[in-house]
Specification:
With 157 residues, the protein is of the alpha+beta class. It has helices spanning 13-17, 21-31, 45-51, 61-68, 83-91, 104-108, 123-133, 143-155, and strands at residues 4-11, 34-41, 73-81, 117-119. Strands 2-3-1-4 form a four-stranded antiparallel sheet. The structure holds inosine-5'-diphosphate (IDP) and magnesium ion.
Amino acid sequence: MRAEERTFVAIKPDGVQRGLIGDIVKRFETKGYKVTALKMLQVTDAQAKAHYAEHEGKPFYPRLIRYIQSGPIVAMVVEGYNAVAGVRHLMGSTDPDKAEVGTIRADYAQVMEYNVVHGSDSVESAEREIAIYFNENEIFDERKCMSELVTEYLDAD
Ligand code: IDP
Ligand code: MG
């Protein structure tokens, strides 16, 4: 049974530097997912280590840490039905060369090292990664605001 989920998405420094923020956010919005948190930030040493703890010791780990801190990222919480797997489907395979055409990585990146986006790989990873980058009071339920305004408007004389 698929469920409403939230996942952590980051536009990595190459995506930000190349001016792809709008295009990438649009992919998630047009799919129908809700962006419930969004901010640009410089990843700290502690955040980089926590985020990529599972890769520590691998040959590419030092480059991965340098890459994620090489410029600002745009961090997001994205919500929707089956959003964890769905976001990764939209992003495509880790290696842009193997990603299906039409996915973000196939369309915007060339090599595995610099693959433009991050998306959590499970609901558990999503909650862990969201907590690295966001306080709960930075995550919003925007569905409420318009419905309350519309109700108020309709109720007004
Ligand atoms: P994912 O981002 O698709 O979940 P992971 O295996 O979790 O892929 O790897 C995290 C990131 O580390 C990748 O997005 C990529 O930037 C980098 N990376 C992964 N594997 C390699 C590799 O074999 N060589 C170089 N960089 C890699
Ligand atoms: Mg991963």
